[in-house]
Amino acid sequence: MGNGERTYRIRRAMARPGLDGDWDSEVWSHADTAHINLFRPEGSNHHPDTRVKVLYDDEGLYLIFRVYDQFVRCLATEYQGRVYEDACVEFFVQPRREAGYFNFEMNCGGVLLLKYIEDARRTDAGFEKFVNVPSELGAEVVAFHSLNAPIEEEIADPVEWRVEYAIPFSLFEHYVGPLGDIPGQTWRGNFYKCADCSSHPHWASWAPIGRELNFHVPAHFAQLRFEG
User: Fold this and answer.
1) Distance CA 11, CA 55 (A)
2) Where are the beta strands (DSSP E) in the chain?
3) Total domains, the chain
4) pLDDT category, 3, cuts 50, 70, 90?
5) For residues 194 and 205, what is the distance between their CA atoms, to the nearest angstrom?
6) Mind listing the pLDDT tens digit for each residue in 180-212?
7) Residue 174: which H helix or E strand, with range?
8) pLDDT per residue over 69-109, tens digit each?
9) Whole domain around residue 72: which residue ranges?
10) What is the CATH number of the domain that holds 189?
């Protein structure tokens, strides 16, 4: 049973976001805010306040995350690195129910991990059926980040950080084919916050993920509805 009762409405952008981390800008003031606050019991008592906004236009999607965090580390510095071990925010999205999904995982230093996953059963290689999105496509995700990697000595004090990025629809179409008219469509997905190797590890989601600590369960994705 999925999270059909939970829906995030993706509004059309009145202008292209500045990709400058300005959470309170006029453009972002028209977006709905999702609170990533469903923390897993396997984690520590550190529950960073994490929120995300999403907009779209004819070219693609735009996301901005704002995190009030602590115990921040950031060691991954290269594309497809182990960003989930760092202070990290994630966007999993499935444009078509019959197709695979994408996991946009980005640490606080703006480093991206991105796969297209069609069968998420775990194997020694990662998953039963997946591809690593190549660097030339990953480079199409243009990002802003307020902190810089690496952060080798954990920031123990409270700190706010933000990442903001643009995803062209053409990246999705490379794997799932033409998307057609976006307004009115309903995709599926979820938003996450994690820090696997922090001194205070934690895992949180916007929509419930089920009994197990596993973000890679498309059956638990919720609705992402594009405003017409």
Assistant:
1) 5
2) 3-12, 33-35, 38-39, 49-56, 60-69, 72-74, 88-94, 101-107, 112-123, 126-132, 142-145, 151-155, 159-168, 186-194, 203-205, 222-226
3) 1
4) low
5) 9
6) 999 999 999 999 999 999 999 999 999 999 999
7) helix 169-176
8) 999 999 999 999 999 999 999 999 999 999 999 999 999 99
9) 3-226
10) 2.60.40.1190
